[in-house]
Amino acid sequence: MATTSARLDPADLLAVGDLLTDEERLIRDTVRQFADERIRPHVGDWFERGVFPARELAPELGKLGVLGMHLDGYGCTGSSAVAYGVACMELEAADSGLRSFVSVQGSLAMRSIHAFGSEEQKQRWLPDMAAGRAIGCFGLTEPDFGSDPANMRTRARRKGADWVLSGTKMWITNGSISDVAVVWAQTEEGVRGFLVPSGTPGFSANDVHGKLSLRASVTSELVFDEVVLPADAVLPGVTGLRGPLSSLGEARYGILWGTVGAARDCYTTALDYAKSRIQFERPIAGFQLTQQKLVEMMLEVEKAYLVAVRIGRLKDAGQCRPAHISFGKLNNVRAAIEIARSARTILGANGITTEYPVLRHANNLESVLTYEGTSEIHTLVLGEAITGESAYR
């Protein structure tokens, strides 16, 4: 019987990474190196100060190839779903705000233009967005309508050949730093998407302050006060909620991978700390209760990683359904939050500082649990998938 003396990797005990292709591992390692060198040394300070240097980082992320990397053409790399997933995993291992920036840019703003825009709109925006020369945001959520976008109050009406847009969007990542906002509004024809460049008269963006989560991320309110847009501002390729919801599915897919990175970072931080922290004349890693916490973390990280790989393979095969995305987001975010909280207990008082990432991850994950579909909504998606009965109303 063959045996092996190779040491198990505590960060990936099941060697889930072996399920990746050589190209996927190369992308994973390249993005990890970028995050380690460019993001980790600074993100604690960014979080504490509530800033994110998007204009500085966007061209670097464009050069890295992660902006719209799962799209084809227009300067995008056309990577596989799994390759995009492992990139999200490594980005969020550094900070959820970093992954959010990339996700909103590529999976929401760029993907909406790529899927539903005219050729002129694609040529105008996508190459610059892929390179990080232009930043986009995605306006769907409103102050009173988050999980129920069908009742949004933002309206667009025709005025001759133009459109007039009025309303408010809330909790918009990249809002005040965007060069173009993809905005969804009710029209007489149904929900339509509009491209609203920054600086358009009547369009303003106000940052949300006082956040205790996603502090290294720009979050804004978008206000549209009788904004006049030309006829070619509308996305011609879709009418109805299918447009924004399909793009949200792409963003949720990135989240189910990203949270694996956040969970792994909390677990490995706690593991390293436990091996070096001496109490009662021995490392706390040698105590049974600490080992139990670490083992529970490791189990959940590996299971979440397996879930992400499986859903990614389904997506690359064209077999991924919305219920699969809900499965991944619900399971993986929930697991990551519990891992972050448990990791903090191992670090003790040190765990509440920005010197270590675990409470920063825990705070960020509270937002990730809610945005792109709350845990309640994803539970109902899965409930309908297994019972055939809708419980939304």
TrEMBL record:
Pfam families: Acyl-CoA_dh_1, Acyl-CoA_dh_M, Acyl-CoA_dh_N. Residues 137-227 form the Acyl-CoA oxidase/dehydrogenase middle domain. Its cofactor is FAD. It comes from the Bacteria. Keywords: FAD, Flavoprotein, Oxidoreductase, Transit peptide. Transmembrane segments: none annotated. Residues 240-386 form the Acyl-CoA dehydrogenase/oxidase C-terminal domain. GO terms for biological process: fatty acid beta-oxidation using acyl-CoA dehydrogenase; fatty-acyl-CoA biosynthetic process. Residues 21-132 form the Acyl-CoA dehydrogenase/oxidase N-terminal domain. Belongs to the acyl-CoA dehydrogenase family. This is Glutaryl-CoA dehydrogenase. It comes from Kitasatospora atroaurantiaca. The lineage of its organism: Bacteria, Bacillati, Actinomycetota, Actinomycetes, Kitasatosporales.
